[in-house]
Amino acid sequence: MNERLQQLLHSLTAERDDFRVSLHLLEMEAKQEWEKAETKWDNLQLRLRDAGYKLQLETKEEVHDMGEEVDKLQHKLSDKVADLRVEWMEEIHELGEEIADLYQKIRKRFK
């Protein structure tokens, strides 16, 4: 019986050693997988940062272009308002002259 216990102890020790080696190998494999995942994570963060930077630049360019378009429209509108103001002033002046002529005609008729 003592011999059987010795064999069982030897067998359990061997299994324990095998398990320890397997566990160590799994630990190394997990560490490698973790390092791969960390590398992917770092690359993803760089890509996201670069994409955000690119998007920010594109947005700034679009806003700048829109600002230029707004400036052009404001100038066009100012020019149009100025043109209309001149036209209205001319029409008002002509109407004023017509009213003055009519007033003179009315005065002459009732004198």
Automatic annotation (TrEMBL):
Taxonomic lineage: Bacteria, Pseudomonadati, Pseudomonadota, Gammaproteobacteria, Thiotrichales
Organism listed in the record: Candidatus Thiothrix singaporensis
Domain of life: Bacteria
Protein's name according to its UniProt entry: Uncharacterized protein
